[in-house]
Amino acid sequence: MRAVLILLFILFAPQFVNAAPAKKAAKTVKKAPVLVWPHLSRANSGDITNVRMVQLLLRHRGFYKAGIDEVFGPKTEAAIKAFQKTAGLKVDGVVGPQTWNKLTVRVKRSDKNDAVKAIQQVFDYGYSETGDESLNLTADGFGFFGPKTESAVRGTQKEARLKVDGVVGPQTWCILAGGKVKQ
After folding, report:
1. Secondary structure (H, E, C), the chain
2. Could you tell me the CA-to-CA distances from 49 to 20, 33, 86, 118, 143 in Å, in that order?
3. Which of 88, 93, 68 is nearest to 78 (CA)?
4. What rounded mean pLDDT belongs to the chain?
5. CA triple 122-63-129, angle to 5 deg
6. CB-CB contact of 49 with 122 (8 Å)
7. What is the pTM of this model?
């Protein structure tokens, strides 16, 4: 009897060992978008709108006390270096991806601060250059995230194919700075 059981095991065991396991539902892993930020430095200050944005964000964080002058000069560079040191970043005075990621803040409706001013100035400067005065974000109050600012943010998010929620997070900041979001 024992020999028969061993023989049956030898004959049929390979079928059970090689049997395919029940298929599990395939999980889709969504990759995080890659943010391609512009680089700003004294040697390559780029767009004055970005310099103004950085100065306002630094002021919002308490690192920039000078006037918003659109000049990436020694005061701006010193403020960036002080911020980088405090944030645990490489201290080089260059606003690159890591500095942008730490410098930007989440901004939403009803907020009132220098970060909101940075957003509004990007829209006001960009639209005034094209002659389109229809946004008139100062109607919300300079530095106040009201309905006109939210509408401009939502329009930018829609155009950039981002989640349209009216909240300015890392992806929206990247677009406002002239960068790209790779999905």
Report:
1. CHHHHHHHHHHHHHHHHCCCCCCCCCCCCCCCCEEECCCECCCCCCCHHHHHHHHHHHHHCCCCCCCCCCCCCHHHHHHHHHHHHHHCCCCCCCECHHHHHHHCCCECCCCECHHHHHHHHHHHHHHHHHCCCCCCHHHHCCCECCHHHHHHHHHHHHHCCCCCCCCECHHHHHHHCCCEEEC
2. 60, 24, 25, 9, 16
3. 93
4. 84
5. 15
6. yes
7. 0.78
Q: Tell me how far the alpha carbon of residue 115 is from its chain's centroid.
A: 14
CA 163-176-154 angle, to 5 degrees, is 35
Which pair of tokens denotes residue 153?
Answer: 């943010």
pLDDT tens per residue, range 111-123 = 999 999 999 988 8
